[in-house]
Amino acid sequence: MVTTQPPETRRVLIIDDEDIIRDSVATYLGDSGFDVHQATDGREGLRRFQEIRPDVVLLDLRMPRMDGLEVLEAISEELDQVPVIVVTGAGVLQDAVAALRLGAFDFVTKPIVDMAVLEHAVLRALENNRLKEENRRYQAHLEDEIRIRTRDLHRRTEELEVANADLQNEMEIREKTAAALKQSESRLAEMVSIFQGFIYTCDANFRLEFVNRTLARHVGDDVIGKLCHMALYRLEQPCAWCRYTDVLKGESVHTEFFNERDGRWYDAVQAPVFDGQGQVRNLQAVVLDITERKTTEDWLRQREAQLSKKIRRLKSNLRTASRFGRIIGKSRPMQEVYENILKAAESNAHVIIYGESGTGKELVARTIHDLSDRGSKKFVTVHCGAIPDTLIESEFFGYRKGAFTGADQDKPGYLDAADGGTLFMDEVGELNLTMQVKLLRAIEGGGYTPIGGRAVRQADLRIVAATNRNLRASLDAGRFRKDFYYRIHILPIYLPPLKSRKEDIPLLVNHFVNDFPHGEKLPVVPQRIIAAMQEYDWPGNVRELQNTVQRYITLGKIDFLDLPPDDPKTQTVSDDLVAVQPDDANRSLSEAVRAFEKGYIQHLLNENHWHRSRVARLLGVDRRTLFRKMKSHGL
Ligand SMILES: Nc1ncnc2c1ncn2[C@@H]1O[C@H](COP(=O)(O)OP(=O)(O)OP(=O)(O)O)[C@@H](O)[C@H]1O
């Protein structure tokens, strides 16, 4: 389509060497409103072309100096924007064809008969150019658009990729969460199924929805959908203990109840199960059989009541009592001892008993044990001073089979034996420092390991220790550990030496006379002897008194008194050291040696007022050996 735009803005360059044609065309086109420029040959035409940048060129082909085809070649780069119409003679059409090949837009033949044809060609060229320009712009616009859209597309793709990666991540997290959830659900399910109590859920109308394995075993598998009180307890109405109204209000409740049907006690926790809207949807319950705990509690309560009754009775008798169980004495210091024994019996704390040898420390320890709530369990005595250091650990902690040569079977130690009861540690001051550390760990909950074993054992122990040493001095001298000392020195009991309570001597003599095996006639210790005994200081304390009474009854002899021979027996037997009596003649050598050993040790103890270290020195043995021998001879 030919453009209708006004042509005056269009610059036309006419390059032609024939003045007449150039002028006539210029006049015509100028009249038609074109802005016409002229050049008389190819060279000038080229220069003008560069100057004015025409919109269309009318180019003659045959010109001197530089012909039209050369011009066309020179501006070949521009031909896309500036159309060239070749004006050529009719006889040289092959020139026109060559020009068209070089990029000319059109051609017009000379002579130009109708200027309108030429103008039409110019307008067509311009229109064509305009269209090309428009096309170019449109293409540029399209390219811009495509660039923008491509960029947008890239951005969207990137965003999508990020979103995709996020989604992927989220999916992985979800998958992991789902797996963890599944695992924890299956663990929970496993726990619920192995739980030894009953677990069940029911709806608000008491219809059972779930029962765990233990409950199913108890009531059968077919209870789902049935009324819980009916299925579980065979009751027509909701159970009396059931707090369903509270649970339906959203509360969790805890109840203990006795089921008359099976005669057992139960502990129940009932709780609501909420739906997504926070409404109570179901009831859930966990029920545990606590009959054993209840029975133990009852037993403990009864025992406590009995104990406090016993203790009240004992307390009220204390003031006037001349004895406390098997302990004899009514002196003021002994009354204090009795009070302390009662306190110790009521508590579970560790006890330490101080007193000289023979004052009755073991007797007191046993009395505390008997009165305490451990009384029905074992009372295990350990003479710490009599165990060689090499054996002490295996004695306390026991050993496993194969732990050392000769360990042909497992052997429990003192701690195992005393588990639940009382460990009486006599001569605790003799315990070496390493053992003190190990025992401390054991009684503080760290446990102990038998020799050759790996498993750590725990024992529920109460320690009652005893010593005739001044433990404070041992502490200062570094022979006793402070931490161990403070662990056992919680309830100290001090036993008075016999010389500080001589008013108890007649009672004790009487007690030992009664205790001594006798015929129908009870042996009598004359008053003057008892009075003499009250004058003596008793370095071996009650043990020495006990021995003295027994010797007096059997031998009519008292070592520290010069007695008139008022007892026939004194004439027949005069000395412990007569090891072999006529009626002993049938003894084996080892029995005779043992009898001599006992008599000799006893003799030395009496001679040395029961000072055991001195006796050990005299015998040429260490203290431990002497202690061991005394224990084995019942001295
Ligand atoms: N108050 C007492 N009433 C009755 N018997 C007693 C009394 N005190 C001690 N005995 C008797 O004296 C003997 C020695 O007592 P026990 O072994 O308890 O003393 P101990 O202080 O532990 O001696 P050691 O320190 O030498 O081991 C025992 O036979 C014990 O029964």
Write the layout of secondary structure elements.
Blueprint: E1 11-15, H1 19-31, E2 35-39, H2 42-52, E3 56-60, H3 68-74, E4 84-89, H4 93-102, E5 106-110, H5 115-194, E6 198-203, E7 208-211, H6 213-219, H7 228-233, H8 244-248, E8 253-259, E9 264-274, E10 280-289, H9 291-318, E11 323-324, E12 327-328, H10 332-346, E13 351-354, H11 361-371, E14 379-383, H12 392-397, H13 414-417, E15 422-426, H14 433-446, E16 462-467, H15 471-476, H16 482-488, E17 491-494, H17 505-515, H18 527-535, H19 541-555, H20 569-572, H21 589-607, H22 612-619, H23 623-632
Bound molecules: adenosine-5'-triphosphate (ATP).
Classify the secondary structure makeup into a structural class: alpha/beta
Instruction: Classify the fold: give the CATH topology of the largest domain.
Output: Rossmann fold
Number of structurally distinct domains: 4
Low-confidence stretches: 563-580
Question: What is the helical fraction, as a range of percent?
Answer: 40-55%
Shape: elongated
Q: How many beta strands in the DSSP annotation?
A: 17
In round numbers, the mean pLDDT is 87
Coiled coil: 128-184
Pfam family, one: HTH_8
Keywords: ATP-binding, Coiled coil, DNA-binding, Nucleotide-binding, Phosphoprotein, Transcription, Transcription regulation
GO biological process, one term: regulation of DNA-templated transcription
